[in-house]
Amino acid sequence: MQYYPTGHIRVTRPGDEGQGVLGLRSARLEEFRANRSRKWDIKDIFGFVVEFSGDQHGSRFIQQRLETASAEEKQRVFDEITPGHIIGLVSDVFGNYVIQKLLEHGTPAQRTIIVNAMEGHILTLSLHMYGCRVVQRAVEYITPEQQTALLKEIEPHVLRCVKDANGNHVIQKIIERVAPERLVFVDVFRGAVFELSTHAYGCRVLQRCLEHLPHTLTHPIIEELQKYTINLMQDQFGNYVIQFVLEHGQPQDRALVVNKLRGQLLHMARHKFASNVVEKALVCAPTDNRRTLIEEILTVQSDGSNPVVVMMKDQFGNYVLQRAMTVAEGDQREELFNAVKPQLATMRRVSNAYNKHLLAIERLLEKYHGPLISEPAPPTSSS
């Protein structure tokens, strides 16, 4: 930090060396940072708005004041920022929040000026750590026509944005906020559904599609997903996409996923990622499908293994069993609980590994069947 005879202080932030937003710290900002006990008003920083916007404390102050400022005060703030400082602040670690507040609390005319300043830079800003936040906020507050103009810059680069740590958030926001008939870029996902489902960011975008878009747009995606359901269930990212099909898909889509589980439920229940899908299936499946899955848990396999016992001992399977005990109904719940109870007693006798998983199962039994009867302690030998 260096002092200059003009009353400004040269400041830098780690990673921000050379940023024009910071420049020299004025005596006004220095006083603001040093004298926080003074009751500052938005009018006190007029002439210094851009500088305050690029400062951690100054930015927070402006954000708070913009929420209650008069139209005239907002206009004064806006006039200092436009036209030459919008892009610089959009990309600034603190300044981006001020632009977001102006988008939220500004007038339609002010929003238009901000969006026009961003025109031609939408892709770059969408891929930027701070700029992507402003683009997302813009999507929320601009007009449908302005959304369309923004989309035109994004559409040729949709897959790049989807796979980007920052850009994927912009695509998610667009899917949430833009009218479905404008989202022609969803067609780009065809042929890449498996790749996107198994991608850390792509899976999030597909989830937003399944959550917010009409079936006419999601049907091709789900149809493609069905080809890879088993593989995706076992993928660290893909399992979330399959869970979303179970939660938000049409009944026929959910039924197709459940049918994929039939015959291999025990294997999937013991898998780190697929077990989450099995739990979701037990919750979201129609009653008949749910009964089919639980029946598979109750059926001893051809090799003699008892799914109830295997799942009780397994670090992932025990959670599936607990979920089955919670959602089972009527005679099937009784049958399941009766299958669990003797196994629980046996494990308690022969193993010291009576861990929290078995304790959770015991609590479920007690919740629905009342307190378990403790077995008598073995007799002690007389001396």
TrEMBL record:
GO cellular component, one term: cytoplasm
SMART domains: Pumilio
Pfam family, one: PUF
The organism's place on the tree of life at top rank: Eukaryota
Domain PUM-HD as annotated: residue spans: 24-365
GO molecular function: mRNA 3'-UTR binding
Keywords linked to the UniProt accession: Cytoplasm, Repeat, RNA-binding
Subcellular location: Cytoplasm
GO biological process: nuclear-transcribed mRNA catabolic process, deadenylation-dependent decay
Pumilio repeats: 44-79, 80-116, 117-152, 187-223, 224-259, 260-295, 296-338
Family: Belongs to the PUF3 family.
PANTHER family in the record: MATERNAL PROTEIN PUMILIO, RNA BINDING PROTEIN PUMILIO-RELATED
Name of protein: Pumilio homology domain family member 3
